[in-house]
Amino acid sequence: MTVRIRELDDASAGAWDSFVRATPAATFFHLSAWARVIRGAFNHPTHYVFAEQDGAVVGVLPLARMRTRLFGDSLSSTPFCVYGGPVAASPDAAAALEAHAVGLRRRLGAPVLEFRRRAAPDPGWEERPPLYVTFRKPFRITGDDGKDQAANIPRKQRAEVRKAIRLGLASVSDSDTDRLHRIYAESVRNLGSPVFPRRYFRLLAEAFPGEHDVTTVLHDGRPVAAVLNFHFRDEVLPYYGGGTRGARAVSANDFLYWEVMRRAGAERGATLFDFGRSKIDTGAFSFKKNWGFEPERLHYCYRLAPGARIPDNNPNNPKYRLMIAVWKRLPLPVAGLVGPALVRGLG
Description:
The protein is α+β, with helices and mostly antiparallel strands. The protein is 37% helix and 27% strand.
């Protein structure tokens, strides 16, 4: 039967997501709800399409176009997500989705088409020089905290977790994205990065009602660290997190991620921890390696219009050093006001 390419709509969202959940190569970031989140939070047009054969979904391709004056113009699978690109049940479906994406880039006039691949680069595509890695590791929670810690995290991190417990830190799990956002905004400002709008976190919670939670660490009743987690199949994915300036002194960050792991295993039966994307040789990269995770290179692949270049919108780019230095000094209310307008081009 002929493979047809169709646009995602409300009527096809259920079949799309059923295909994603049943296909091992698909990821949480291939779920259809990301389309309305990206549109609603950032006002970027989305072009989600699926391959259909004999009335069944046989492939999906999430795409969104980011076009801003400061950070350029690209058609990506998928901005604000770690993984992307087409996922298909057959070579014919994969080829049809790729051909659609290449043609769509030309029709839209976007200079860059990007696929964010985890497992392998796309043959014939230009690949970004090594920049991003992801960290994934199996784990197992059996109910005995001491033995579970020894089995799942290195000795130094176990010591940090025990220190946090002695200091009286505790965790709560809920859906309070506003509390998370306050902590996250302070954390990314201190790193020199623009903050996402509060609305983005709220939309994520609404889009994935049974597949997210927020873990918050409290010290003397005050929130000092928090992270938004996604849950997909047997995986837990801590995604947007941060801590206050005082978090490190009380080992709140190590305690936070141990609590995410512990709760996901004990309460949801999760067995794989996806620590997410980091840039090579950054503080986040080192933190995750110290937790016993091995980096896996991410393969971000490109089709470019004549004369176009692979985007380099990342803090390692020397042209952004002054901007980062200035941003770290901004009062938090100012950073919170200006940041969302900038970050929409940094997906």
